[in-house]
Task: structure prediction
Amino acid sequence: MNTTRRAPRASSHDRQASLISAAAALFAAKGFKGTTTKEIARAAGISEALVFKYFPTKRALYTAILAEKAPLSELLSAVEHVARKRDDHGVFTLIAGYRIRPGADPTMLRLLLFSALEGHELADMFFGKQHRVFYDYLAGYIQTRIEEGAFRKTDPLLAARAFIGMVVHHRLLHEIFEVPLHCSHQDIVATYVELFLNGLTCPATSKPRGPSRVR
Amino acid sequence: MNTTRRAPRASSHDRQASLISAAAALFAAKGFKGTTTKEIARAAGISEALVFKYFPTKRALYTAILAEKAPLSELLSAVEHVARKRDDHGVFTLIAGYRIRPGADPTMLRLLLFSALEGHELADMFFGKQHRVFYDYLAGYIQTRIEEGAFRKTDPLLAARAFIGMVVHHRLLHEIFEVPLHCSHQDIVATYVELFLNGLTCPATSKPRGPSRVR
DNA sequence: TAATAGTAAGTGACTACTCACTCACCTTTG
DNA sequence: CAAAGGTGAGTGAGTAGTCACTTACTATTA
Result:
């Protein structure tokens, strides 16, 4: 008489999805080496052996996580919409609020950081391509606004990087490292946008200065 | 007859220092779990067993690395010197150029990131205390300059965080993730300072706006 | 409908290997 | 010689990945 319990059956697709989300959380919390396949299996509620039925290696599971592409194009079309109306505030706010994958962003960001630090090719996907889109797009917009006389003369790429730097830094501190910041994400992003636009918008009174003065 | 070669003797202090620097580089490149004591020993040119004569555990070696305190006070006195002369440019440039430990900063930064991501108490030392000093000091300076009418009215803490965010983001991309940025560190810091000061210095023409407008 | 055959889902026990850490012993130096 | 510097050869505790096997379910056939 065999009385061992086994988990109810599930479809291959569901299992794969639950495996990915369980593994993503663990990898993001402890890194690739810091996470064991046994832990992943337990978190997903299956046996360790079954993990290898769905993914041939631990690494394959890892790469499958970030391979679920982020909906970058959706963001860009939304940005383009406000950009056509020359809604500077809207453009900066939309870009500042971007999430790699809605609902799971801090996890994905942590994973991305680990991936980059551990030297995995996963991060190249983001830092090599996706990440550049923001810079290129935002820099293009800033360039346009400079030509239209709405923004001060400055290096558009550097200006874009400055803005994204502010936002990324804040989100890193707040969402990843959980440093207490005493104010809501929403407020801070709004203030950053405000502060940044004060620096960029052209009051048509003070002349733009050249970019390099410190020796 | 024993013909095995062994390493020449070294003082305890020298060994400890070379162990720390070898281990720091490895931990920074691959994380705590990703680095083996065997690798560390080989990098330091000694046997694995000897590592444990100097440090009782792998973790003890790890904590010893960041425990070498950074010369933060030196930076602060340098900053205070230019701050007294109200050299805004000098203040921002000095803070932007700060290195945790001169000569080994990217390594230390990588280590710090790993430490923070892996949830080790090491990062608290930095994010909990040292890191705050920048914010508090810079925010205090900005506050003073606002009261003197030199900067626009804005939240000093947010302004400080924005500036440090820009710089940290750039240095992260450039020094840690080695993203090609097509411009020198020096130029970028200068442009950041310029851009930021343009936003903060008060031309006495455009009124400061309130911080929150985005819904 | 009931027996049979086929198959995907699922598992415990195992293997080959790696890891941090230990120990008995050797060598150099004062 | 005694103390300190130094090591090769381990050891037990994991760890990824395999394998032979069971179970739950479905389709086919008589």
